[in-house]
Design a protein that fits this description.
Blueprint lengths: L2 E6 L9 E2 L11 E3 L4 E3 L6 E5 L2 E3 L2 H8 L3 E7 L7 H5 L6 E9 L2 E9 L5 H10 L8 E2 L2 E2 L6 E3 L4 H17 L13 E3 L6 E3 L8 H10 L2 H5 L12 E5 L2 E5 L8 H5 L9
Helix pairs in contact: 3-4
């Protein structure tokens, strides 16, 4: 006996009202009679049926709505197999898929993520934490243009601005060993790659395999592991109650670097 409103999508309901079809109505053809005309609810996909203040969408509309916050980002810096795991770790924050491959001839990762759960700026923070932004001739032991660092911002002006802001702040901080007036080597393209070819073999490393691969590639010694090897980001030693250890807080990230990685946190904002 509840009253409800039937309106086309995007059209204000005005004062029209209608009533629920009786329980005895055929399940194959449910009609609601308004003041102007009768409408078959099962054959009117462009109408939204509002009852009790809730919106009921047909399956196609629901699917469209559920994927509306999905976006894709592209990042390159050396062997993508060694970069992808750090984005896959963000599955709990809305990263839904990470694919390794070649973007316009450069080894890269394609990251699909939900913008309602994670910010593009956080993807950038993770990216810069695991690369050598001052090395434009490759990354670590992987040499050549196909391993050069690059970012594609997909024509999004705010993403382009954020990427350039990060590069400017990190360059001025000298955290990568560059001179403060020397721009970092990461190229930023305000587009999507013209061609992205997924890797034929989807190698996924984790645990000891990943740790060993990072070590063999030169990443551990260059970036630091927080266990005594300072690397780019450095580490802090602490002693408490006669127990000493290392507290990863990137003490070398100072000045404008701290404007980007607040309090030296190298993860999400």
């Amino acid at each position: 006996s509840r009253s409800c409103t039937l309106v086309p999508r995007g059209v204000h309901s005005g004062s029209r009202s209608c009533s629920r079809a009786p329980a005895s109505a055929s399940s194959k053809s449910i009609f609601v009679v308004s003041r102007r005309r009768a409408i078959n609810l099962q054959t009117a996909p462009f109408f939204v049926y509002l009852c009790g203040g809730q919106q009921h969408l047909n399956p196609a509309q629901a699917a469209e709505q559920s994927t509306s916050t999905q976006e894709v980002a592209y990042f390159a810096a050396g062997n993508p197999t060694l970069l992808a795991p750090f984005f896959r770790e963000l599955a709990y924050r809305g990263v839904t898929r990470v694919t390794t491959g070649s973007a316009d001839g450069i080894q890269a990762v394609r990251v699909t993520y939900d913008t309602s759960e994670i910010l593009y700026s956080d993807l950038l923070r993770v990216y810069f934490h695991h690369i050598d932004a001052a090395d434009g001739g490759g990354q670590f032991k992987e040499r050549g243009e196909q391993y050069a660092p690059a970012i594609w911002t997909a024509g999004n002006e705010s993403y382009l601005k954020e990427a350039n802001r990060a590069l400017d702040l990190l360059a001025k901080s000298e955290v990568f060993g560059n001179k403060p007036t020397q721009p970092l080597a990461v190229k930023v393209y305000n587009s999507t790659p013209a061609v992205f070819t997924p890797s034929a073999d989807d190698i996924r490393l984790g645990g000891k395999q990943l740790s060993e691969a990072l070590k063999q590639s030169g990443r551990t010694s260059r970036l630091g592991d927080g266990k005594g090897k300072a690397g780019i980001w450095g580490y802090e030693e602490y002693c408490e109650a006669r127990v000493c250890g290392y507290y990863v807080n990137a003490p070398r990230c100072q000045g404008t670097c701290r404007d980007y990685y607040v309090d030296g946190k190298l993860g999400l904002s």
